[in-house]
Amino acid sequence: MSAKDEQFMFQALEEAAKGIGRTAPNPPVGAVLVKRNQVIAVGHHAKAGGPHAEVVALHKAKAAAKNAILYVTLEPCAHTGKTPPCAEAVIAAGVKKVVYGFRDPNPLVHGKGVRQLKKAGLQVETGVLQAECARFYLPFHTFVTKNRPFVTLKAGMSLDGMIASAGGESQWITGAEARQHAHFLRDQVDGILVGRGTITADDPRLTTRLPGKKKGHDPIRIVLDSHLRMSPRAKILKVRSKSPTWVIATHEATRIRQRMLEEQGAEVIRCRANGMGQVDLKALLALLAERGLMHVLVEGGATVHSMFMRRQLVDRVCLYLAPKLLGGKGQPFLSELRLKGLKNAISLQDPYLEKIGQDLLLVADL
User: Fold this and answer.
1) What is the distance, to the nearest Å, from the Cα of residue 186 to the centroid of all Cα atoms in its chain?
2) Is 54 a residue of the active site?
3) Which of 349, 309, 360, 363 is nearest to 158 (CA)?
């Protein structure tokens, strides 16, 4: 594979990124059509039910697509869903070669798109930016293979791991730049999840607010409230947003409390309880996957963070670290997680560190 191949696949990844947070339960995909080493058309999958990236690019290129090379981030689909198979469209357009970045893990597609293209006489290659494409599709891979959303755990804290002071103050440990950056995270997920304690303590709106004239995407707001004790006057129930607010309760919560929240516009969803009378997180994630959520951002607080870590349901952490020290009386990020010995420590993989204003952002996978 040449540097040109990598250049075109990188451009396809940039196209795919335009759909992040907007395509679930479909994956975001980008496509680039090339002829004589020149890009003649690009496309991305903009929303579920809409045309796929390959079809968008082919439609733009029209007759020029004949004998072109198609670079696409994900194996073209070979089945009929809400739209016809992309592999058929690629063949019909006369494309001579397809270079794809990641094989689709969906059993409906896996390898079938490649076989259909080869059977029609097209050259098919893979391996260009393979690691980058694989990382890009981690959320989709988790969604398909584990029947649950990819879970990113996000928190802002002091350098000694405290998310609140001894007096309970948590707003604002990190600076304005870090808080603004967190809204870009919200813009790229399908759901944002907090516990009732966070609603009571901070009364957040959990919407996406991007700078300037950029249009943000509001993820679905999800509140863990096993016994429906949150206030019906909470700001999260008053926001103007196209995305709904879901309150997750066990079957033990009273119908009276459910009606109070539903009258304020929330949807109350009942979920199986664990042995402690709390919402069972594995059952909840399976339920969210059934509803089409591919990537969920868990924003806390400490009890919720600890629950997800304890159940080994976290795929990635995004930790904003402020250059402050709050001492031993503060509230630790994982205050409810009790691990015995270094051998039980949770290991983070491929850590990435970036400076955001005066703060640091640590991103790592588990």
Assistant:
1) 9
2) yes
3) 360
| Selected catalytic residue, list 54, 75, 252, 263 | 54
In tens, the pLDDT along 225-276 reads 999 999 999 999 999 899 999 999 999 999 999 999 999 999 999 999 998 8
Question: In the chain, where do the E strands start and end?
Answer: 30-35, 38-44, 69-74, 97-102, 123-126, 150-158, 162-164, 191-195, 220-224, 245-249, 267-270, 295-300, 316-322, 331-332, 349-356, 359-365
Give the closest residue to 271 by CA, choosing from 298, 299, 250.
Answer: 250
Q: For the whole model, what pTM was predicted?
A: 0.93
Q: Bridge partners of 362?
A: 319, 353
Residue 324 dihedral angles phi and psi, to the nearest 5°: -135, 155
Length of the chain: 366
CA atoms of 131 and 128, how far apart (whole Å): 9
H helix runs in 32-111, sequence order: 53-61, 86-92
DSSP-derived 3-state class of residue 202 = helix
